[in-house]
Amino acid sequence: MSQSARLISAKILEQVLLQRGSLSTQIGKQIGEVDYDEQGLTKELCFGVCRYYPQLNSIALSLLSKPFEEKDFDLYAALLMGLYQVDHMSTPDHAAVHESVELCRQLDKEWATKLMNAVLRRYQRERDEILENLAQQPSVEFNMPKWLVKRFKKHWPESFEQIVEATNTHPPMCIRVNESRVSRETYQSMLLEQDTVSRETAFSASGLYLESAVPVFMLPNFDQGDVSVQDESAQLAASLLAPQAGERILDACAAPGGKTGHLLEKQPNIELTAVELEPWRLTRIESNLERLGVSAELICGDASQPAQWWNKQAFDKILLDAPCSATGVIRRNPDIKINRKPDDIDDLVEIQAAILDATWQTLKQGGYMLYATCSLMPEENEQQMAAFLNRQGDASECPLNQLAPDQTLAFGKPVSHGVQVFPTVDGQDGFYYCLLQKH
Ligand SMILES: C[S@@+](CC[C@H](N)C(=O)[O-])C[C@H]1O[C@@H](n2cnc3c(N)ncnc32)[C@H](O)[C@@H]1O
């Protein structure tokens, strides 16, 4: 029997609050329990609560005499959902309260019905005053965790407002047209024939932004590989690496294979090795490549341990799209606002350095490595590159478009090493690129 959207949303959010996996993983696991018609509402509630979590959490804590214990995080999720419906959905006030109270019963926590009713009704009565009292808190003013506000302000004072605005908005849907099958212009007309309006990406030659998001099965010839969903910033990787026929290329952290597929669309006659640590994510590369009708050598392994998977034949080029804080794509993964912690950045910097040093050994002399992250943290980006260039005497930085002179670099801000891309409201995600050559 299918479950209600609100019940499953509370269960998904409970797992996210308990740090038992990402929002997308939890949605993937549980959304099947909801009728198809209700899945949109489930996603709206889950993404919405995560997107507004810093604000909703501050409001909730100000309304409760003591925070919920972990064993009742399902109720806490229900309360956050109630507040989200009051503030950000068109749910009538009385319905938001009624549904939240009913949810306590569905969660077998009848004892909490009075509390839920009282807290939400008080918020409805005193909303303006409560918000005014909280307005100075960074989590409420910027709808971001305090530590992130501090770091963004410190690192990017001039772009701070843009980062906050773009991070808090719903991201546009961006697709990459497979130009080995169809031109961007033709595909745009195919979309228009079914009343899907799109505009061309400014910096990627193959991208289109859709005026409003559609499920992938509504994209013409999606199953035949005419098109993939990929942000504009991410589309630049394959262009900047400019694969040439006959080259041996390593895609060092490859899943779900968005860039793997793009490299092969651009140049099918390459020997591409894609390495990925997580076995279940490797299967996603497999299905993506199958859909595009291309193939690569897929290896489940640790990129920082080439002894596990490298056959000692040096690569001409390496794409290292490193695991990172994903602070440039919070709008697509809003649970980062809940679960990412400042210490994570230090851990990630270490992992990135280990993968950089190890994969560098597999690059031939004269070969190129494109280092990429979807992070806005200089520690993971320009500072990571500075430290790397210091450690590796045979590495030097090249102009980012050395391999693709026609590619404009106007999409980003040149920093001490590489180019930092900031997210924009209607456009690209936050990203970072740096091109290195081995001597
Ligand atoms: C930023 S994502 C890559 C996105 C991918 N390049 C794309 O365009 O679809 C980073 C990936 O690196 C993987 N990863 C993390 N640590 C790794 C390691 N030590 N070796 C190989 N892959 C790793 C993660 O599981 C994740 O799939």
Automatic annotation (TrEMBL):
<dbReference type="InterPro" id="IPR029063">
    <property type="entry name" value="SAM-dependent_MTases_sf"/>
</dbReference>
<dbReference type="InterPro" id="IPR054728">
    <property type="entry name" value="RsmB-like_ferredoxin"/>
</dbReference>
<dbReference type="InterPro" id="IPR018314">
    <property type="entry name" value="RsmB/NOL1/NOP2-like_CS"/>
</dbReference>
<dbReference type="InterPro" id="IPR049560">
    <property type="entry name" value="MeTrfase_RsmB-F_NOP2_cat"/>
</dbReference>
<keyword id="KW-0963">Cytoplasm</keyword>
<keyword id="KW-0808">Transferase</keyword>
<dbReference type="InterPro" id="IPR023267">
    <property type="entry name" value="RCMT"/>
</dbReference>
<dbReference type="InterPro" id="IPR001678">
    <property type="entry name" value="MeTrfase_RsmB-F_NOP2_dom"/>
</dbReference>
<dbReference type="GO" id="GO:0005829">
    <property type="term" value="C:cytosol"/>
</dbReference>
<keyword id="KW-0694">RNA-binding</keyword>
<keyword id="KW-0489">Methyltransferase</keyword>
<dbReference type="Pfam" id="PF22458">
    <property type="entry name" value="RsmF-B_ferredox"/>
</dbReference>
<feature type="binding site">
    <location>
        <position position="321"/>
    </location>
    <ligand>
        <name>S-adenosyl-L-methionine</name>
    </ligand>
</feature>
<keyword id="KW-0949">S-adenosyl-L-methionine</keyword>
<feature type="binding site">
    <location>
        <begin position="253"/>
        <end position="259"/>
    </location>
    <ligand>
        <name>S-adenosyl-L-methionine</name>
    </ligand>
</feature>
<dbReference type="InterPro" id="IPR035926">
    <property type="entry name" value="NusB-like_sf"/>
</dbReference>
<dbReference type="Pfam" id="PF01029">
    <property type="entry name" value="NusB"/>
</dbReference>
<feature type="domain" description="SAM-dependent MTase RsmB/NOP-type">
    <location>
        <begin position="163"/>
        <end position="439"/>
    </location>
</feature>
<dbReference type="Pfam" id="PF01189">
    <property type="entry name" value="Methyltr_RsmB-F"/>
</dbReference>
<comment type="function">
    <text>Specifically methylates the cytosine at position 967 (m5C967) of 16S rRNA.</text>
</comment>
<protein>
    <recommendedName>
        <fullName>16S rRNA (cytosine(967)-C(5))-methyltransferase</fullName>
        <ecNumber>2.1.1.176</ecNumber>
    </recommendedName>
</protein>
<dbReference type="GO" id="GO:0006355">
    <property type="term" value="P:regulation of DNA-templated transcription"/>
</dbReference>
<dbReference type="GO" id="GO:0009383">
    <property type="term" value="F:rRNA (cytosine-C5-)-methyltransferase activity"/>
</dbReference>
<dbReference type="GO" id="GO:0070475">
    <property type="term" value="P:rRNA base methylation"/>
</dbReference>
<feature type="active site" description="Nucleophile">
    <location>
        <position position="374"/>
    </location>
</feature>
<keyword id="KW-0698">rRNA processing</keyword>
<feature type="binding site">
    <location>
        <position position="276"/>
    </location>
    <ligand>
        <name>S-adenosyl-L-methionine</name>
    </ligand>
</feature>
<dbReference type="InterPro" id="IPR004573">
    <property type="entry name" value="rRNA_ssu_MeTfrase_B"/>
</dbReference>
<dbReference type="InterPro" id="IPR006027">
    <property type="entry name" value="NusB_RsmB_TIM44"/>
</dbReference>
<comment type="similarity">
    <text>Belongs to the class I-like SAM-binding methyltransferase superfamily. RsmB/NOP family.</text>
</comment>
<feature type="binding site">
    <location>
        <position position="302"/>
    </location>
    <ligand>
        <name>S-adenosyl-L-methionine</name>
    </ligand>
</feature>
<dbReference type="GO" id="GO:0003723">
    <property type="term" value="F:RNA binding"/>
</dbReference>
